[in-house]
Amino acid sequence: MSAPATSSRSSLWIKIAGLAVVVAIAAFAYFKMSAGNAAPDVTFTRLDGQQVALKDLRGKVVMVNFWATSCTTCVGEMPKMIETYNKYKERGLDFVAVAMSYDPPNYVLNYTETRKLPFQVALDTQDKLAQAFGDVKLTPTTFVIGKDGNIIKRYVGEPQFAELHQLLEKELAKA
Question: Residue 77 CB: number of other CB atoms within 10 A?
Fold first, then answer.
């Protein structure tokens, strides 16, 4: 009779240990990509075909926003992203909106032109940019990168814009 009880306890401890490992890996990945780490060394391909290397934007605060034309939250937040960019661009903010690989390029071009997006829009046709930023799957996902090239903040979903603006104020004020 004692063998089955011991077996079920061992099984329970194995499950708990496995869960602990999964939680530890998830926490490590979250903190690795959320703040204080160097942004990946990537090059964006803009809609006009021009290449923009993220490292060439050092010295500016940069927002990298992963989005899709089929994402209702992305489309909903875009006017606020435009306002944010327009408010801070003269103080050194740069902005790259990265369309996800599944977003048809002609949809992205149409959206960009009809909405008159004032910032750089890039295509991620081979999913390399999303992978480089920690395998971004959920849209919108926005990264704020400091002048030193380190990721300061990662927003999954629409940011609280008051908080985002406070963060931008602080980072743009740094020498």
Answer: 21
